[in-house]
Specification:
- The radius of gyration is 13 Å and the shape is elongated.
- The protein has three helices and no strands.
- By secondary structure, it is an all-alpha fold.
């Protein structure tokens, strides 16, 4: 379970990249899409750092 939890932040980042990639491919990018994708990437990045610090201690 801890190995899956260790990479949860990376999975959230990949979802954020997908949210950014799908509208970019279809050429219909809106500010809402960009904000959601950016927030998912930032949350995934910070979550990855926090979860790894918690699991290693």
């Amino acid at each position: 379970m801890s190995t899956i939890l260790k990479y949860a932040g990376v999975f959230v980042q990949l979802v954020g990249v997908g949210v950014l990639a799908i509208p970019a491919i279809s050429s219909r990018i809106t500010n809402t899409d960009l904000a959601i994708g950016l927030s998912l990437i930032i949350v995934g990045y910070l979550g990855h750092i926090v979860l790894n610090k918690i699991l290693e201690s």
